[in-house]
Amino acid sequence: MISVWGFYRARFKTALAVQLQYRVALAIWMLGLVLEPIIYLSVWTAVAAGSGGVVNGFTVSDFAAYYIVLLVVQHFTQIWHMWEFDWVIRQGILSGRLLRPIHPIHNDAAENIMYKLLMLVVVVPSVVLLVLLFQPVLNPPLWSALAFVPALLLAGVLAFLVGWCVALAAFWTTRTFAINQVYFIAMFFFSGQVAPLALMPPLLQTLATLLPFRWMVAFPTELLLGRLTVEAALAGFAAQAGWIALSAVFTLLAWRAGIKRYTAMGG
Amino acid sequence: MSRYLKIVALYVRLGILNELEYRANFFVQLFQSVLSLLLSLGGLSVIFSHTGTLNGWTQSELLAVAGVYFIIGGIIRLVIEPSLWRLMQDVREGTLDFKLLKPVDAQVLVSVNQVQMWKLIDIVMGLGVLAVVFAQPQMQTDPLRALFFVLALLCGGVIVYSFYLMLATISFWFVKVDNILVVFESMYEAGRYPVGIYPGWLRFTLTFLVPVAFAVTIPAEALTGRLSAEMLALGGGLALLLAVVSRLFWLYGVRNYTGASA
Which of A37, A192, A202, A257 is 20 to 30 A from residue B161's alpha carbon, by CA? Predict the structure, then answer.
């Protein structure tokens, strides 16, 4: 256990050094993250303005609160390893990581955590700016504000596991690009990015409940907005736990099967 | 002039030959374009299940915006972006020497030297979307609108090209700035919807700092009969101005070029 912690500490340091090297790239990546919620916030603000200020119980300031919270949740649940993993395998970079006496998932987990903490330097001012610009209204009951913290943490773990699992497809195919695209479009519709799920057609809402994406992003967001009952919140935590267990098992199996196929090239 | 046309044709042919080597990329691109279309169509159908118009635009009109978004995006990714990306790489590695030495205008060479042919799919798809939209009986078409549309598209193309050229020219001073092109890519996403829906500061940014409005919204306004002749003239003036400014900036940049290693 001590060695795992030591590894994370060392990896935090190197990840920090690497990230600081590419400050401009970081800022640009953030721009995309901030812009997308603003696009759909503006769209729904225009819809609300056109229909007397309210859409299905969402006022303009509710939409503002929704998309600003969504931005924060998306930051803590974003995952990019699937874009790199193909390269890590193709270039044989994985070979070096396999030689370490620790599972390679820790390498990516440490990098992921470091990045998310570091980028708070950009996320926090963006959120402050957006709050000033869009005047959201947010007053959740105390219990749901408190429950938001574990929900966000679980969502981060879940998104990381599912994302890592998707990344493993690179063991079997070189066309991971297409798989990643499908993953992100599913995210777009089922995690509450295009619209709060309550505004989606019933069929898509049912699908969203069955898929993991809702529990990664929409659930913590709605929780902090105070839109969930206690029962719905408990069901959400159960869904998160269930998906985490499922994706952990699947990742483990896929990793074992994948690593058998792995033939290091170069490195 | 005909010499330049021949050079452009030659580069296009080379680009096609290059990509024909990777035929599977056609399907990858097709897949990617279809997903992007799905994103637009899905978004619109969710939005219009709650409203009849968005800031005065009907669903069909917003579909036309999406069509223009694909056409202009396709043009950018077909030739402008890959060519100027290559320019930045050439500056970094010093291989721009070879282009500067050729007895033709280097700006023409660097602007067409990479053609990603499969991006034509985006353009074809955009045209298809427009065809579907304007096949509907309630959508008006008249020759004047069509003329305005073509002119606005032309202005938008020139403005976006000049903008890209200026960004790429910055690499003569700051060597590693290829990320800067990603900024446009990122902001372009906002063009799926007319810029009028965005708050003032963002609308200003998307009009004058990053010309998404001129690229997508204004041609779409022309197509749906919203564009006044004055606004079109303004766009034309701006296109001309930016073309001249970016040309001067490019010439100034080339003088600063030292040739890194080659």
Answer: A37
Mutate which of A34, A35, A39 to disrupt the B interface (most B C-beta within 10 Å)?
A39
**Residue A204 resides in a domain:** yes
B179 contacts on A by Cβ (under 8 Å): 24-25, 28
CA-nearest residue to B200 within chain A is A133
Structural domain includes residue B145: yes
Q: Which residues of B touch A178 (CB under 8 A)?
A: 28, 31-32
- B47 in any annotated domain: yes
Pairs across A and B, CB distance < 8 A: 86
**Is residue A172 one of the residues assigned to a domain?**
yes
- State how many domains chain B has: 1
Segment B104-142, tens digit of pLDDT: 888 988 888 888 888 899 999 999 999 999 888 887 778
B145-194, pLDDT tens digit by residue? 899 999 999 999 999 999 999 988 988 887 666 677 777 888 899 999 99
Instruction: Give the best residue of B25, B198, B201, B210 to mutate against chain A (max A CB count within 10 A).
Output: B198
Task: Report ipTM for this prediction.
Answer: 0.86
For residue B261, tell me if it sits in a domain: no
